[in-house]
Amino acid sequence: MTHSLDNSELVAFYRAAGFGGRVGWGSKAAVLVIDMAGNWTEPDAMIGSDLGGVTAQIKKVITAARNNDVPVLFTTMAYDPAMSDVSRVSRLKTPHADKMVRGDQSTQVIAELDRRDDEPLIEKPRASAFRNTNLISILVDRGIDTVVIVGCSTSGCIRATAEGAVDLGFHALVPAEAVGDRSPSAHTANLFDIDQRYADVVSVDHVVEHFESSADR
Amino acid sequence: MTHSLDNSELVAFYRAAGFGGRVGWGSKAAVLVIDMAGNWTEPDAMIGSDLGGVTAQIKKVITAARNNDVPVLFTTMAYDPAMSDVSRVSRLKTPHADKMVRGDQSTQVIAELDRRDDEPLIEKPRASAFRNTNLISILVDRGIDTVVIVGCSTSGCIRATAEGAVDLGFHALVPAEAVGDRSPSAHTANLFDIDQRYADVVSVDHVVEHFESSADR
Amino acid sequence: MTHSLDNSELVAFYRAAGFGGRVGWGSKAAVLVIDMAGNWTEPDAMIGSDLGGVTAQIKKVITAARNNDVPVLFTTMAYDPAMSDVSRVSRLKTPHADKMVRGDQSTQVIAELDRRDDEPLIEKPRASAFRNTNLISILVDRGIDTVVIVGCSTSGCIRATAEGAVDLGFHALVPAEAVGDRSPSAHTANLFDIDQRYADVVSVDHVVEHFESSADR
Amino acid sequence: MTHSLDNSELVAFYRAAGFGGRVGWGSKAAVLVIDMAGNWTEPDAMIGSDLGGVTAQIKKVITAARNNDVPVLFTTMAYDPAMSDVSRVSRLKTPHADKMVRGDQSTQVIAELDRRDDEPLIEKPRASAFRNTNLISILVDRGIDTVVIVGCSTSGCIRATAEGAVDLGFHALVPAEAVGDRSPSAHTANLFDIDQRYADVVSVDHVVEHFESSADR
């Protein structure tokens, strides 16, 4: 396995098995910005990595979204300081959960992305933004049928959110340069699986052009 | 990236980032046998691959389970012949959905696993056995807090079910030899992610020994 | 308490407490026909009652829907003959669950409603059509944001489905003459609660007129 | 319809139709205290009513729970000040949603119930404590199979939470004196439905005695 999406032999093998179709855009999109808070974006934080390049790409996506009335929603992860509202199995499997304390600066969306007051911030307890949160209600209510997923980490919350999206009937797209992961191999392997199973992996330019050319929203 | 779980450098890197803890067993386990029907087990079927070795390992697990009063549950995937009860986004992304027709022999659990009448067969519409099914209700009702996940495919339904299990507070274990995938690279990469994020990846022997030594069920 | 919705004093009291607003129609509707199978429609069945008048009203609603390209979806309840896929707590609380056997004629939608092959039939394990089923996926996928709920029973599955609909962000409407209940008092009390909390209770004529006047679908 | 549970004729009619069975206790219980915050307990608040008597009964239940190592969990409802994380359909149907502002004193559990730091506080977006929250994960993780539901309002969040509990396979009990509602008729009608369909309606004394006599927790 190479770490590139250009593994044409493997792609052909999957295509023959009925994977990797193109879903494309529905009629009304939103952008989901996953876990772009200090716990993940500070390279010195336990669970952090250098996401500088990813952040710049996310800014391109959300700027185009805001300029074209495409809703932008954010997620973070946080539990109460006593860790009473998170399962023990979560904490055993991923002990970094204990670093995610509600109210701490490290759980706030980074200033660089300039979240607006009317852009929802979903506090998600698990990897998928759809799991045990009110996100489904917010999206259905606004008539959104397509989600563009950006942020981190590709092998965790991005993949899980893409899976949750198609599970619930949404079109999902992942612009490859706008998602990041601490592990290059996990990033590549999971982008492959995402593209084959859950969401169309596309470029940031494709997303920006779509937002700018859409007059019907 | 090697395709082995013995990538000790990567494991150490993840451990330092707060991943890959051991969850272990809870107090009452069940076995979930995922999608062991002809559509997946016949090498000539669109979505099939050679799972002969996996089937033999699954038989070891469920024999030990049945001998020790550990419940065994099965899943399959099937939609109505008109495909009215599956989303169009699912069919676009994974066109093999159209091969999964309720009532067809190819959606039935293979005879070799000898499903008993009182062992539930969950018809799941999506990758995770927990998504949009009654599985959570059946497990809670029986006081089950631990799921052992076997079957296929590692990179799809096995991973998604392990993720769903910990999302909902269950202990989850995946015996590595009892899960299979059409792609060796996807199998290895996803076992790594599963072990770091969702379920303890263990051996079939470990599971069998646990079932045989548990007197409290 | 009278059994009429014209209890104007109580309505005013609720209105002052911030209940009973009008939600109205969204942009794309579907009709959900709840549990119109022999188990519920045969007066001699354990859980049945005389729903003849309700059936006639449902036919008006679904005829108008079909004539105007409004999707119609059906539900029923059924478990496997060994009752392995239903919780024991369900069976203890409502022992009639044991009469709902998958494959039995009594769980099929009554012939009078003439379900078409491309109209989904959702087998729901619980009162709400949204609970542990694939319904959310089907609705989101089709861009539906409004559900018109008809069938039985007002105090059980109708109310629970209306609650589930607004929980998930849908507009919900219940045409009063097209829902029925074995108990007149439960019917009235629950229509009141539904109208105050979950769905707009309207007339069948209102629904039919809306379907016939909608050109945008 | 009388407003009493002693409507023996109606009860017999329901019993014959397979409703109203006794579910009883499972093996490990928790208490769910629903929405006992100023917005609901202050008679002058928009959505408030006089719950003084109910509060005293809840104290009996949670004192017995705390003395016998039965976990106690609390819920409240709150949205961000911009109301970006609540659906518009919710706000249209129940405009009092706009009074539920995250961080306001009126959304905090009343001091009289003396919530401990290690007792989870679930911020629920909808009537049911199980809908779009992490509650299921917390309960499964702790091996809890039985919920005792107290608080308000009987016709809204209590009923919806009882329904959610049995939907997910839990035993559910509602001690009648420890739940309240602004409307006596809605209180009575909904206790009847709860007892027939979802949870065993019992006395506070029954719950206290059970907690005090249980040595196995």
Descriptive account of the structure:
In chain A, strands 1, 2, 3, 4, 5, 6 and 7 form a seven-stranded parallel sheet that branches. The first copy, chain A, has 217 residues and is an alpha/beta fold. Chain A starts with 7 loop residues before the first helix and ends with a helix. Chain A has one domain (25-213): Isochorismatase-like (Rossmann fold). Chain A has helices spanning 8-16, 38-41, 52-67, 88-93, 135-141, 154-167, 184-197, 204-213; strands spanning 29-34, 72-76, 121-123, 146-152, 171-175, 179-180, 200-202. Chain A is built from eight helices and seven strands, in the order H-E-H-H-E-H-E-H-E-H-E-E-H-E-H. Chains in contact: A-B, A-C, A-D, B-C, B-D, C-D.
Structural class of chain A: alpha/beta
CATH H-level name of chain A... which superfamily?
A: Isochorismatase-like
Q: What is the H-and-E element order of chain A?
A: HEHHEHEHEHEEHEH
| Number of distinct helices of chain A | 8
Summary, kept brief:
The structure is a homotetramer of 217-residue chains. Chain A is α/β, with parallel strands linked by helices and 217 residues long.
